[in-house]
């Protein structure tokens, strides 16, 4: 069974996503290490520290001998709740939380995969609603995911996407890592995202463009073409009889 490190959407917010991933993977999730973690394996991660990024990867490797996959999850609605206001005193913490930590951990994961020989690195972002989209879509009372994306998370999402695309373009053609860029709508449940994403990751298909984002629900083109070839082959075989 493959082992995956899930980071960014941490415990307890990331528990549903990690639990769904656990149906087909050994899972370790970043976050504080509470006494009651619902049976999930949780590794502490200080996003402002490159040393902590290395420690998190080593911790995960020690649990499962090796890490085969890593999913870096940027949840815009979650961050918009965490950072509702634009103010100078939270900017540094927000940058650590939403930008710097992902960079440190990505570099550590790439280094580990290059030494191991192969691994899968996924950049997953859950989109947010703008205030204009909220006015068009209508209000979803009681659903935090429907809250409009705030200024700092919106800016950080742009940075996350640009960084992910750069990594995919720079490393997508290498033999030691498969980079996947995936996005999901704001209102999609985490368990459903995981139930789509991990089977998608199991298909050994690379996109036509390394920096191409796949949207929630998409099927690997190689799977579709493969089924088409099988069907076409049966039809041709039948026509020769």
Let me know the CATH homologous superfamily.
NAD(P)-binding Rossmann-like Domain
- Percent of residues in β-strands: 15-25%
Q: CATH fold name, please? A: Rossmann fold
> Could you state the order of secondary-structure elements as H and E?
EHEEHEHHEHHEHEH
Structural class: alpha/beta
Structure summary, number of beta strands: 7
Can you count the helices?
8
**How would you sum up the global shape?**
globular
First-last Cα distance = 43 Å
- Largest pleated sheet: 7 strands, parallel
DSSP helix fraction: 40-55%
CATH class: Alpha Beta
Number of domains: 1
Q: Report strand order across the widest sheet.
A: 3-2-1-4-5-6-7
Q: What is the CA-atom radius of gyration, in angstroms?
A: 19 Å
- Uncertain stretches: 223-233
Write down the overall mean pLDDT.
86
Q: Give the name of the CATH architecture.
A: 3-Layer(aba) Sandwich
Keywords, separated by commas or semicolons:
241 residues, alpha/beta, Rossmann fold, seven-stranded parallel sheet
Structure in words:
The protein has a single domain, classed as NAD(P)-binding Rossmann-like Domain (Rossmann fold, 3-Layer(aba) Sandwich), CATH 3.40.50.720. It is 49% helix and 18% strand. A 7-stranded parallel β-sheet has the order 3-2-1-4-5-6-7, with helices on both faces. β1, α1 and β2 form a beta-alpha-beta unit. α2 crosses α4, α3 packs antiparallel against α6 and α4 runs parallel beside α6. About 5% of the residues have low confidence.
């Amino acid at each position: 069974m493959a082992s995956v490190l899930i980071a960014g959407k941490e415990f307890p917010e990331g528990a549903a996503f990690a639990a769904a991933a656990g149906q087909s993977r050994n899972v370790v999730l970043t976050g504080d290490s509470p006494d009651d973690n619902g049976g999930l394996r949780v590794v502490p991660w200080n996003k402002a520290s490159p040393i902590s990024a290395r420690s998190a990867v080593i911790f995960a490797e020690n649990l499962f001998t090796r890490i085969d996959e890593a999913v870096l999850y940027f949840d815009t609605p979650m961050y918009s709740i965490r950072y509702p206001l634009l103010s100078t005193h939270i900017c540094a913490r927000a940058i650590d939380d939403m930008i710097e930590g992902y960079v440190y951990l990505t570099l550590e994961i790439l280094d580990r995969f290059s030494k191991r020989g192969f691994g899968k690195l996924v950049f997953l972002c859950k989109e947010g609603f703008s205030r204009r989209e909220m006015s068009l879509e209508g209000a979803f009372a009681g659903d935090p995911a429907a809250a409009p994306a705030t200024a700092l998370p919106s800016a950080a999402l742009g940075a996350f996407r640009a960084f992910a695309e750069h990594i995919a373009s720079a490393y997508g053609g290498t033999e030691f890592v498969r980079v996947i860029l995936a996005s999901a709508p704001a209102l999609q449940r985490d368990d459903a995202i995981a139930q789509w994403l991990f089977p998608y990751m199991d298909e050994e298909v690379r996109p036509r463009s390394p920096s191409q984002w796949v949207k929630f629900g998409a099927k690997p083109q190689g799977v579709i073409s493969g089924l088409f070839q099988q069907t076409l082959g049966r039809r041709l075989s039948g026509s020769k009889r």
